[in-house]
Amino acid sequence: MSEYNYIFNRRGNPAEFSLMQDLQIEENSTFKLKVVVPHELGPEMGHDTAILMLHGLNERSWQKYMPWANAIAQMTGVPVVMFPIAFHIDRSPESWSNPRVMQKLVCMQNEEDCSNGLHNSNLTFANYALSSRIRENPLRFYVAGRQTVNDICQFLDEVRNGQYPFLEKDCKMDIFSYSIGSLLSQVLLMSNAGGYFSNSKLFMFCGGSLFSQMNGNSRLIMDQHSFERLRGFYNNKFLTMYFNHEIVHDIVNESFLAHIGKDLKRKEREEFYRANSHRIKIVALKNDLVIPVCGIKDALGDAFDKILVQMDFPFKYSHEIPFPFERKEDLQDVNNWFGKVFSQAASFLKQK
User: Fold this and answer.
1) Is the full-model pTM beyond 0.85?
2) Residue 150: which domain range?
3) What is the pLDDT of residues 19-51, one digit of tens each?
4) What tens digit of pLDDT does each residue of 95-116 get?
5) Which of 75, 220, 247, 315 lies at 20 to 30 Å from 341 by C-alpha?
6) Residue 305 maps to which CATH number?
7) Which residues, including other chains, have CB under 8 Å from residue 105's CB and lie 6 or more apart?
8) Contact criterion met (CB below 8 Å) for 131 and 226
9) Please, are residues 349 and 176 in contact by the beta-carbon 8 Å criterion?
């Protein structure tokens, strides 16, 4: 595989409710798009198909995803564009990934919580930056998602204008998504954001649940109090804001609303999956505690039997680390199941 980096400069107006201090984070406006291309193709060749890769919540590097992107590019023979969600990967200050800086803040937060009689689980240096930002203002979750939708549409506008020579101007953009990136991809497809996704195929891994049934309380994602605040906000306050027209009513936001709770725009959501089951596939893990299978089934409605494939690996895994390659005793099994997952992804995405 060959890797190439392209600089992306975000243009246009910020997403609604963007905070001034967040607008001043330069890394979020100018960042790298990492592209993985099969060796034999090269960056100069104009491809008529590419795959957009969307990652999970609270990721600070592409390290976990590089083997995934390499496997997909090799098996499909098309480029994989690794697009970072706003304020994630290298769209955030380096200090957010610095264990020494973050651990000091964790200790201060724990002392404050203890003095207030609060017990907070799963606050770590790895999730402090996201946890503290969400605790301060849970609307940031919506802002980051909406900004990323806008950025992806800008990227595809630029593709149409010939700014990325490795892609044809009318390149078809399919999607491989994981975890919270799957929620983003569901919104992209259901809304057909920018008119770019009417023919796209979507493969989700460990994703696809309704937001109300996700559990982001994890040492690698978000601490207990922050996630409880996040989930409570979108199950209550956000809905009030939406129905009071404090939030823009457009197809992107309506598609997001449809994936918050089971009965929100249920008819439209289930009809979407029923009508588009031929271009959507999900591989879910039986013991996934973050994105439960029941939440995926509730999102899909009666189309789940056409879309959903459930797996259960014969080794200890988690949502956050589905392929624990560091345990030598499990290495053969991990490699085998890694191959099964990504063979399914590639086979589905290659189908015409």
Assistant:
1) yes
2) 2-350
3) 999 999 999 999 999 999 986 655 567 889 999
4) 999 999 999 999 999 988 888 7
5) 220
6) 3.40.50.1820
7) 128, 132
8) yes
9) yes
